[in-house]
Design goal:
The structure is a single chain. This protein is mostly helical. The chain is 75% helix and 0% strand. The chain has nine helices and no strands. The protein is globular and about 55 Å long.
Length: 184
């Protein structure tokens, strides 16, 4: 399984991340589509090529083509929205809160997958990117559609663990590069 390849690549000190990857890949509070879509958007948001490749390989076994594209669309649109709305939220000039965003976001209205799944994936990306406005908005939508707090928490747990795996592997690669440079 491709998740096992991520676990194998992690150093011993990241044992908790390895264990959490195992547990979360078997999580039953989400549908398979929600679970693997959340893994995929989290990998994409974490930007580590190895993690993306391994999660993609695992997700292909569980996601339809439409769901795969919907997850990628969620990661993409939230990459834009999280920056914009984090700025609006953090700026001390509150005038930006009353201004139209003037950014195209058509995919949110027609994501090609179940709206709940798209919202869940958008929430996971927003958690990784640290956009409080987007987190609140997507959580409200999910709760309004009857998604439980436990399901929401599961999506954010997946996001946090996938991001931690990606960050750890990036850090290890940087340390290896530094060691090679120092030896030269």
């Amino acid at each position: 399984m491709s998740i096992d390849l991520i676990k194998d690549a992690l150093p011993a000190y990241a044992k908790d991340i390895k264990l959490n990857l195992s547990t979360l890949s078997q999580e039953e509070t989400l549908s398979e589509q929600q679970l693997w879509g959340t893994f995929l958007v989290s990998a994409l948001a974490s930007r580590n090529a190895f993690v993306i490749k391994q999660v993609e390989a695992a997700a292909l076994d569980y996601l339809s083509e439409a769901a795969f594209e919907g997850a990628k669309a969620a990661a993409t649109i939230m990459a834009m929205n999280n920056i914009y709305y984090r700025f609006v939220h953090l700026s001390s000039n509150k005038d930006y809160q009353t201004m139209q965003a003037k950014l195209r976001m058509n995919v949110i209205g027609n994501p090609g997958v179940d709206k709940v799944d798209f919202e869940l994936w958008s929430l996971a990306v927003s958690a990784i990117n640290g956009c409080g406005m987007c987190i609140d908005s997507h959580e409200q939508q999910l709760l309004g559609h009857g998604v439980s707090k436990e399901q929401i928490q599961t999506a954010v747990r997946i996001a946090s663990v996938v991001h931690a795996a990606a960050a750890t592997l990036e850090g290890e690669a940087a340390l290896a590069d530094t060691a090679v440079a120092a030896a030269a």
